[in-house]
Amino acid sequence: MTDLTTRYLGLELRSPLVASAGPHTGDPAMWERIEQAGAGAIVLPSLFEEQIEHESFAASFAYEHSADMHGEASSYLPDLPMGEVGPARHLGLVEQARERLSIPVIASLNGTSPGGWVKYAKHLADAGAHAIELNLYDVVVDPQVTSADVERRYVELVEEVRAEIQVPLAVKLSPWFTALGNFAVRLQDAGADGLVLFNRLYQPDIDLDHLSVVPRLALSSSSESRLPLHWIANLRGALRCSLAATTGAHDGADVLKLLLVGADVVMTTSALLRHGPEHLIVMERFMREWMHEREYDSVDELRGSVSRENVPDPQVYERANYYHVLHSWAPTTRR
Ligand SMILES: Cc1cc2nc3c(=O)[nH]c(=O)nc-3n(C[C@H](O)[C@H](O)[C@H](O)COP(=O)(O)O)c2cc1C
After folding, report:
1. Residue 106, SS3?
2. pLDDT per residue over 190-208, tens digit each?
3. Is residue 242 lining ligand 1, measured as CB closer than 6 Å?
4. Does ligand 1 have an atom closer than 6 angstroms to the CB of 248?
5. N or C terminus of the chain with fewer C-beta within 10 Å?
6. Among residues 80, 75, 77, which one has the least CA distance to residue 55?
7. Domains, the chain, with CATH or none
């Protein structure tokens, strides 16, 4: 029997297939299906910096107004429906997932600036999360802000979150850093136990009827997995921390390629939204058959065997390959 067990962030997983943050992992009705379909771990949807700050503002606003109305009662909190407050509900979700699932539960926190909200990393860990994933989703539009400023701020944020928690910490990044290798090492040195590569940034669209800007979420396609594939191949030998691939893993072949370049785990959201959690079974079956045919006994045997440090010609992962890629194009059909 092929051994799929995997170590990620110091956690033992039964499989390298992980259900990444998305609507299905936030839906308790899906949890058992995800687990039974073979996920090695589940990442819950993010708790957002804005959500925390908005809720604490709303709570203090309600408190002050209640205190005004009942001056003598200002020493106790008003009867706020705390169960309905966003962060409280989110912490409840983590607790529930821990109770119901036997696979590791990773809680996600989204934010980009150091601040008081970071204490929620500890609350998520106290609620039972096996690990925290810090999602650095950001679009820096201010031309006064330099890339050095942004990287410094993220490193400080990772240090702050690290100081709050004892459980492992993963950092989910966008691919748009000029010198990603250097930044990745600095995140590791700041306390990241793993990097999740890459967050998929969404671009708005224009509604031609109303001349307005509209959000449009499209699910990913398989070809998008080449970006995490390229960078994991490059970073595998430079980092000692765990590496998770996210974006574009739609079938067993995508997963195998990402493991071959050095991913410890492969995460998937779009494919599970499209086909349902049971698609994990299809992905795993393909992997097992492929590995069996080639006589691999475990994923550890194949992991990283095609990373940059393990291929005969590392230039295939570097700039020199640009020339060959452009000249490899050939028309497949004649018009
Ligand atoms: C509807 C939707 C909601 C998502 N919510 C989150 C989230 O809360 N936190 C997060 O880190 N990523 C979130 N993601 C991103 C996914 O976790 C994943 O990184 C991304 O979709 C790329 O992977 P895929 O190609 O397998 O979809 C979301 C994605 C979708 C489609």
Report:
1. strand
2. 999 999 999 998 888 999 9
3. no
4. yes
5. C
6. 80
7. 6-327 (3.20.20.70)
